[in-house]
Amino acid sequence: MLLKQKNDHLLLWSVALLAGTVLMLAYIWTRVEATRRGYVLSELTREHVTIAREHARLELQAAGLRAPGRIEQLARTKLGMAPPSADRIVEVMGDQWVAADHLAAQR
Question: Which residue in 59, 80, 99, 100 could disulfide with 89, CB within 3.0 to 4.6 Å?
């Protein structure tokens, strides 16, 4: 009887010790995982800020490249373009094309 009681106590203590160990390991794992995810979040936040800055820089660059003055200057210098002369201008009236100098003569 005494041996059975000792075995029961030993079994109870073993189960309690095992449960305590499992709980402690679970707690440690949650803390480690929270720390790891904190580092991941920090890195992603840093990456987001870097990408946002790059996006803003590229938006400014694109706006500069789309500037009408820049496009006109490139058209004149690199493509040899110029505003059309009066005889090259055509007005569209309804479904007819009328040369601008012809319109001036009619008015």
Answer: 100
